[in-house]
Amino acid sequence: MPYTTFMAKKSYLEENKETAEAFTRAIYKAQKWVESKQPEEIAKTIQSHFPDTELDVLSTAIKRYKQQDSYAADPLLNEEEWNKLQEIMKESDELPKFIPYKQLVDSSIAKKVTEHK
Questions:
Q1: Cα separation, 37 vs 45, whole angstroms
Q2: What torsion, rounded to 10 degrees, do the Cα atoms 81, 84, 89, 95 define?
Q3: Within 13 Å and on the Cβ side, how many CA atoms surround 1?
Q4: Which Gene3D superfamilies does UniProt cross-reference here (predicted)?
Q5: How far apart are CA 78 and CA 107, in angstroms?
Q6: How far is residue 110's CA from residue 31's CA, in Å, rounded to a whole number?
């Protein structure tokens, strides 16, 4: 289940294809980096963004997120993840109705980026 997702209008993706691909490449690079590093190293890297949080607390949180598979390994969003995301949004009254995966999700950019490792 993805912790966060990036969504954009089809018109934006069509008008800004290079930007969308570069953004997705950067996300994928960061995902691979997080997957390959220990929680302590990640915590040291991001600590400046959490000035009120002690390093050991950050490390513990990151370790837990890794154990729970909270960090996606790639930018692809499959149908099961899409449905789970919608369930969470529905439960928090943020989604008036479910939208079918094939109607709204276009993973073509993510597929292109992950195929060119």
A1: 11
A2: 90
A3: 11
A4: Periplasmic binding protein-like II (3.40.190.10)
A5: 9
A6: 12
